[in-house]
From TrEMBL:
Keywords: Auxin signaling pathway, Membrane, Transmembrane, Transmembrane helix, Transport. It is a multi-pass membrane protein. InterPro entries: Mem_transp_PIN-like, PILS1/3/4/5/7. Involved in cellular auxin homeostasis by regulating auxin metabolism. Regulates intracellular auxin accumulation at the endoplasmic reticulum and thus auxin availability for nuclear auxin signaling. PANTHER family: PROTEIN PIN-LIKES 7 (PTHR31651:SF3), PTHR31651. Residues 187-232 are annotated as: Disordered. The keyword RNA-binding does not apply. It comes from the Eukaryota. The keyword Repeat does not apply. It is found in: Endoplasmic reticulum membrane. This is PIN-like protein. GO terms for cellular component: endoplasmic reticulum membrane. Belongs to the auxin efflux carrier (TC 2.A.69.2) family.
Amino acid sequence: MAFLELLVLASMPVVQMLLIGLVGAYLASGFCNVLTPDARKHMNKVVYLVFISSLTFSSLAKTVTLQDIISWWFMPVNIGIIYLIGGTLGWIAVKILRPERHLEGLIIATCSAGNLGNLMVIVVPAVCNEAHSPFGDPVVCRNRGLSYASFSMALGGFYIWTHTYSLMKNSGVLYKKMKAAEDVGEHANGWGNPKDGGVGNEKDLEAPLLPSTSPSHDGAEAAEQSFSAEPSSSWKHKSNILKFLERARESALHLAKELMSPPTIAATLGLIVGATPPLKSLIIGASAPLRVVQDAIKLLGDATIPCITLILGGNLTQGVKKSKLRRSIIATVLFLKYMILPASGIAVVKAASKLGFLPDDPLYHYAILLQYTLPPAMSIGTMAELFDVVQEECSVLFLWTYLVCAPALTIWSTVYMWFLS
């Protein structure tokens, strides 16, 4: 297939996503004011709890077999490689650009954590629906593509709520420490809070500027105070251990919560049903006695893609605001995200294919290549709100990365299909 034909083919799902996203942006704007923040919040809960779970279960249960699960072992490894390369690139960018310290976690997270669920569910089946798709029969391709996207979604949640969650949490802790230090610095000036007129209280004004040199404070007492003011090294060691255990406990709780989330449970059940022929024959197939259950679940899952895209378009309107984020940071993130990372993905997938790590299905190769080209995970914005840190900067980065994603995803998707053909 000619490169121009592949370019047109690759642009179709992106154009569809843009059109539905524009509808969502209009519904969230002040002209319509239908998708308000509260409405998007409640709609997102329904999508998360019902629609995505239904789509994940129905697609995996219908198409996956035990042999498929074994042959897909490279996908979790591939996502780990993406996090490793993206995190390293983000760390290098942080060292070169030297942004504010509380922004470092956001930059690294944006470079490493991709939208491994929602956009995969949108793009891969849409490519299969095109008449001249290089991946064979549209129905078979769509079912296989949804299985790959669902598996990617389940794996992505594990990485996001461990690695990315830790980055954003550390940024939130650091930001609170910085704010506390600024408040202490304002009080140390002796003039009080500037919001109160810049005048301190009387006790601050009457306090002596130099420490007392009364002879009653002899050297022994001063030494005793100095010794008591600093904790012993053993106490510091115990304190560090306690902090480490507390962080480990919180990470384990959030990981357990993510593993018990409805999409992850649906993915697990779908894999079990797909890999177990007796269970699969109960609900999958025209003669299955419980086929109505699969039909109902599939009907719910069909609402996932339009709802996700509407919410995505509405959320991106938050990025149209002023922010102190430097243009050099935005340009660097875009360059790393849409130039270096996809190019490295081709090298990784080509090497894995030569070593025999990948199944022969070209659609599987396309799916894991696409994982290198995705914009940041929307969960980063959720974590920014959770820890009350870099929310405006996150919205601005999301706006630019998702706008540039449209041409970048089209071009790289064309390159991937040309590379695989």
